[in-house]
């Protein structure tokens, strides 16, 4: 038998937040909501990953609590997989193709140059 265990998320279900979904690169939270600043920072990390990979990949589907994120999804440009399903059903390739049109730079992006 095999078992897969995950770390207990502090705060339980009430503390769990979906920061960014894998179908969109914008934060799901609104300004003023708990976790909004974290969501902005995670959107910035996507921007860096997108730029550093030459527009080929970034991580999305950020969820969890501020000190523990779980179940991220790698998203790749269609040219990376060449028709193969390399990162599962959550790898929505069209989202990567639309990144420059959909991503809204925030103050973390602007601060980094």
Give descriptors for this structure.
single chain, 113 residues, three-stranded antiparallel β-sheet, alpha+beta, 32% helix, 5 strands
H/E order of the elements? EHEEEEHHHH
β-strand percent reads 15-25%
Q: What best-fitting shape do the alpha-carbon axes yield? A: flat
Strand order of the largest sheet: 1-3-4
Radius of gyration from CA coordinates: 15 Å
How confident overall, as mean pLDDT? Answer: 89
The strand count comes to 5
Q: Distance between the terminal alpha carbons, to the nearest Å?
A: 51 Å
Helix content bin: 25-40%
Largest sheet entry: 3 strands, antiparallel
The assigned structural class equals alpha+beta
Structural commentary:
It is a single chain. With 113 residues, the chain is of the alpha+beta class. It has five helices and five strands. It has a three-stranded antiparallel β-sheet, covered by helices on one side. A two-stranded antiparallel ribbon has the order 2-5. A hairpin with a 2-residue loop joins strand 3 and strand 4. The longest helix is centred in the middle third of the chain and has 17 residues, at 36-52. The chain is flat. The chain starts with 16 loop residues before the first strand and ends with a helix. The mean pLDDT is 89.
Write the layout of secondary structure elements.
Layout: E1 17-20, H1 36-52, E2 57-60, E3 62-65, E4 68-70, E5 73-76, H2 78-81, H3 93-97, H4 99-102, H5 107-112
Short description:
This protein has helices at residues 36-52, 78-81, 93-97, 99-102, 107-112; strands spanning 17-20, 57-60, 62-65, 68-70, 73-76.
